[in-house]
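In practice, a research group might receive sequence data for several interacting partners and want a quick structural hypothesis before committing to experiments. The following worked case mirrors that situation: the sequences arrive first, and a predicted assembly follows.
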Amino acid sequence: MYQKSPTQEWTSNVVRYKKFSGSWAWLLHRVTGLGLTAYVLVHINTLASLQEGPEAFNAKMQVFMAPHWLFAAWILFGLVIYHTVNGIRIVIIDFGKGAKYHKQLLYGAVAIGLIVFLWMGYIMFFGHTDHDFLSHIVPFYN
Amino acid sequence: MSYKYIGSRGSGSMSWFLQRISGVVLVFVMVGHFILMHYNPEMGHSFDRVFERMQNPYYQMLQIAFVVLALYHGLQGVWNIYRDFKFPSWLNMTVLAILIVAGVGFGALGIANILHF
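A structural hypothesis for the assembly, expressed as C-alpha cells:
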C-alpha cells in the first residue's frame, strides 16, 4: 500500500482541514501571541539602555524613528490590536454567552481592530496631538 | 523528575482563569501605554520624558505590574501552545525550565530598568 511521507501527511492534513472563521481566529491568536511574546523579551532588552544614560537611550531611540522601523512598529501594532480585540472576544465567549454569536463577535472585533489600526497609522505617521484633552483623560500624561 | 507527575497535578483551570484575568488587565494597561508612547514621537522616545514619568512611584508600580503581567501572560501562552502537542517528558521539563528562567531573567531586567530611576 502507498505510504505517505510525513511531509505529505502534514500537507494533506492542512489542506483538508476545514478553515472556519473560528479556527482562523484561534490560529491567528496563537501566531500573534507567539510574535508578541518574542517582542516583549526584545523590548525589555532594548530598554535596558535606559540604565546607560540619556545619550545611549536617545541614540537607540533615534534609530527606531527611521521610517522603515516606524512601519515595522505599525505592523507590530497590528499584531497587538488583533490579539487585543480577539482576546476580548475570547473573554466574552468564556465568561458570557458569546459562544452563541462568536462569528459575529469576530467580524465586529476585526472591524474595530482595522479602524484602530488605520487610526494608529495616521497618528504614527502624520499625527498631531491634542495634549490638553489627553492630559485630562490619561493618567501620567505629561 | 518526570513531567507526567507534575502535569497531572491540576486540571489547568487556574492557569486558564489567570490567563483571562491578566489578559483583561493588559488590555487596559496597553491602551494607556500606546497613547503615552505613540501619541507623539517624543513622549516614548526621549530620555527626559521617560525620566519625568518615572519620578512618580505610582507610575513605577504600574510599570512593574505591566512587565510582570506581560511576561506571565506571554510565557504562559507559549506553554499553553506547547502543551497542545505531545512531546517526550524530558523535553517538557526542559521547555518549562527555559520559560521559567526567561520569565525570571527578563522580569528582573525589566524591573531593574524601572527601578534605575
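Before designing any experiment, note the following. Chain A touches chain B at residues 30, 33-34, 36-37, 40-41, 44-45, 47-48, 50-51, 53-54, 57-58, 61-62, 64-65, 73, 77, 80, 84, 87-88, 90-91, 94-95, 120, 123-124, 127, 129, 134, 138-142 (CB under 8 Å). Residues 90 and 128 of chain A are 34 Å apart (CA to CA).
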